Amino acid sequence: MSDMTITFLILGVTIVLFIWGRWHPDIVAVGSLLALYLFGVIDLGEAFSGFANATVVLIASLFIVGEGLSRTGATAYFGDKLIGAARGNAVRLLVLSMAATAILSGFISNTGTVATLMPAVVLASWGVRKVPSAYLIPVAFAANAGGLLTLTGTPPNIVVTDALSAAGFRPFGFFEFALIGIPLLIVGVVYMATIGRRLLPTRRSGDAPPVLDEEMDELAELYSLDGDLYRMRVRKPSPLVGSSLRGSDLGRRFGISVLQIVPHPGEPNLLEQTLPAPVRNRMEAMTAEPPALPDPDQTINYNDILIVSGTPAQARDLEVAMHLGVMPIDDAGQELGELLSQEIGIAEVLLTPRSSYVGKVVSDGAVGRTFGVVILGLRRGDRVIPTTEPLRFGDALLVRGTWKAIRTIADEQRNFVVVGQPEEIASQVTELNAKSWVSIGILVAMVTLMVTGVVPVVIASMLAAGAMLLTGCLTRTQAYRAISWSTVILIAAMIPMAVALESTGGAQLIADGLVDTLGAMGPIPLLAGIFLVTTAFSQVISNTAAAVLMVPIALGAASGLGVSPHPLMMGLAVGASSAFLTPIGTAPNLMVMAPGGYRFTDYAKVGAPLLALFLVVSLVLIPVFWPF
Predict the structure, then answer these.
(1) Hey, which end of the chain has fewer CB within 10 Å, N or C?
(2) What is the pLDDT of residue 420?
(3) Are residues 554 and 530 in contact, defined by beta-carbon separation less than 8 angstroms?
(4) 227-329: which CATH number, 3.30.70.1450, 3.40.50.10190, 3.40.50.2020, 2.60.320.10?
(5) Could you give the CA distance from residue 516 to residue 497 in angstroms, rounded to a whole number?
(6) Burial category of 259 from C-beta neighbours within 10 Å (exposed 0-12, middle 13-18, buried 19 and up)
(7) Measured distance CA(210)–CA(204) in Å, rounded
(8) Which backbone phi and psi does 274 adopt, to 5 degrees?
(9) Distances (CA, A) of 432 to 72, 198, 581
(10) At 470, is the pLDDT very low, low, confident or very high (cuts 50, 70, 90)?
(11) pTM of this prediction?
(12) Tens digit of pLDDT for each residue in 552-567?
């Protein structure tokens, strides 16, 4: 049995196992890699070539970039804008998501586009009360189609353009691909908004992320914070003027907790006074510091605002003794939300049976002083208890502190259990802060490097991932957790299959046979054959490899028929970007598989009609724009 036959058999079994779904796709992919090696089709270096492939490193890096955007709130901000633009309409959100994905994909890699936008689309989908599976395949398909908008949108475009130039023909222009790309994108969006969305599964791949406003309202009610939160303005005769929290010892003297000190902004300067109020307010919002923990040594000045937590009696005692102006907070949940940022979090913590803090008193500094957090409230069973009561096993504490401090508490597993998903809540903070702009700047720099070609795409993504870590947009642990390792392994393990198809001549055999058969029928059937063979290859090997295989065949066929190569080469490019039938066809298809909870057959079910539409539109329009 020849190596070519063995390769086809292993490929067939692999596809059957993918469709069957009994084993996870990355396990099946690793099995196919081992089979190719054990049967002698590939050597050891080829078997593990995928793990050193630039595409694999690119995808891992882009997962980190996407997580950096999410952790700094940029993703939540964009998702909030998507939800706002959709105005609660699920179809409008689908159209907007696909359009945004396709446009961005025209200028950076489709993998980078999906990694950047996928978290925002997931959040937006829950925001319109839909599961992510209703949007992520359309986003992946839009990223693939968006590559047909520009020369640099996808590598096959560059392959066919360089091949035309090398053969002495006019190369395609930078935006020439958009002549067919825009109509195909419109067809794809209309199809998904009408027929395709009905074919998509409504499968949950996990629980909906906690909604920030709802979580804060629930916590405020649970800990009876309504009526216990106050804004207190420091008046001119107050003894606090010129003092500090440490020096005044407000917590011990009055039993209250100071959550935040908001400095008085002062009077606007002459330049600010000349600006229109909306512009001035927007500038103030952009430059405002995120809410932070109060510095115990910070000097308190006249007109500063103290955000205080305490009982009404404690608040009255503080008001009278310190000559403060009191402004009760009616909506405690909203106030809690405003105290959140990417740096400062709120979490619910339970005491374990063996906790060393059992018997200690919060008002004496237990927990708060040790970990540098502020205790907002205590619960025991179904009732709220004062901070002066000794702690017991099972008591729940509502704490506010830096995310680092909260992670430190979570690591103290002998003493505490952190409840819920506090960091998931923080990622929904939509106000952009300094870190948000840093992460957006890193994204813009990465896109610029990719578009200009100053460095290879994979290097640009690695630089961006490193910058996210170095600037503190996310931690090393968060970066490792952000990478979908099953996706990375699946791609790396399937690359040897592409190597085997090329090295054994299997791909060439199929291409030659189909093109020779259809080529005898005329240029239009030949164009259809080029499209179908290229897209068939792109379902199981990279679209770049498929394009490289088909370029000499398309040029040779055009020469043999005496027709222009341009329509055939454009058909080749479209076919290479039409991998809609399998999750292994392109990196975007794979990237959305786990978050969307998709199965192998979902892609073919939704993608087959779209592929047929792309073929029909291409056969009609390509000869119009690029005559034979």
Answers:
(1) N
(2) 63
(3) yes
(4) 3.30.70.1450
(5) 25
(6) buried
(7) 15
(8) -80, -15
(9) 8, 36, 39
(10) very high
(11) 0.59
(12) 777 777 877 778 889 9
